[in-house]
Amino acid sequence: MRLESIQLEHFRNYAGQRVDFDPVCNVICGENAQGKTNLLEAMVCLSTGKSHRTRSDRELVRFGEAGFRLAGSIHTRGRDFLSQLEAGFGRKKHMAVNKVPAKSASELSAVLNTVFFCPEDLQLIREGPAARRRFMDASLCQLRPGYAAALSEYQRLHEHKTRILRDCDERPDLIATLPDFNLRMAETGAVLIHYRARFAAVLAKYAAAAHSECSGGRERLEVRYQTVKTVADPLADQKLLVLQLLEHQRTHHYAEVSSRQCLSGPHKDDLEVELDGLNARSFASQGQTRTAALSLKLAAREIHKEIIGEYPILLLDDVLSELDPRRQEYVLNRLGSGQVFITCCEEDRLHALLKGRVYRVSGGVVTGG
Ligand code: ATP
Ligand code: MG
Fold this sequence. Notes:
With 369 residues, this protein is α/β, with parallel strands linked by helices. The chain has helices spanning 36-48, 105-109, 123-126, 129-143, 145-167, 178-214, 238-251, 253-259, 280-283, 286-308, 325-333; strands spanning 2-11, 14-20, 25-29, 67-76, 79-88, 91-97, 100-101, 114-117, 221-226, 270-275, 278-279, 313-317, 340-344, 357-362, 365-368.
């Protein structure tokens, strides 16, 4: 899969711009606030129908204009596609693939898949379990419709059970409804664990390989899926998982009622990340944190490739800073096949670039390539 060219009209700080890309590596350089991230954001919009930075399409419209248009020429599955997105102009958002209106953003995703990495993704390593669950959920929802359905059902049940626990002091009769919620949460929870355990096992393999290569074989990254304590083997049959989840709920019943919180279930899952046997969250250096977070994203890209048969395009916003020359060389040249876009501020880093094209962005105008 590759993005051959993109056209932006009144998008962020771009007035009107067309850029043709290299099939392998594209490096986008420029000073701060010139439009590097905006260009990657346009690619994300063409892939998901929305920005990763804002929910409001209005913010994406160049100041003083009425709307924006994006178009991308994409080559995938041996064919050429034209994806278009238009918002503002006093009309409903419009998306199209090969000039045929798209009903939902998933029609755009079917043509262009992206894996995006930006400095905020360091929270994958630095922050608590919620950031890593979001990462698992986002990847699995894109790839497995069955997972997306189970996740939204589980979240609905979880919210409802939390309300019951909160209100059961005033209304003790609500306690009687808990067994029914518990059973349904155990059943949908088992589906989540089933998918997450398999995803984490493959992710662990690819992330370890990426991290080892990026660090020149000097560091060992381990990723382990952590779920409800009573689940002895998360890869086990779902029927067994249901029984083990029910057992955990049973032993936590009083704690849940007295704390008025839902304490039992996979909404507390985590991916434990260790570097050379030490917890990465507590002990990793800045460069190690960046390498480990990047390795998780690269692993997600490999999983996409396994499932959809082609690499998604990889967007790396500002990853080179804080990496030593060896790690930079890996990012610039050795990510294997698949198309990559990398933004950076300092051009002198690029002596490590062996193949690909360099673009310069200044005040919303792209040159070079
Ligand atoms: P950095 O190196 O600091 O990350 P960058 O090149 O990635 O910089 P961008 O995030 O792409 O910078 O933003 C460039 C500029 O775009 C910002 O100065 C911002 O004010 C401007 N900008 C953002 N939204 C709009 C908009 N809707 N209309 C016009 N300009 C905008
Ligand atoms: Mg930026």
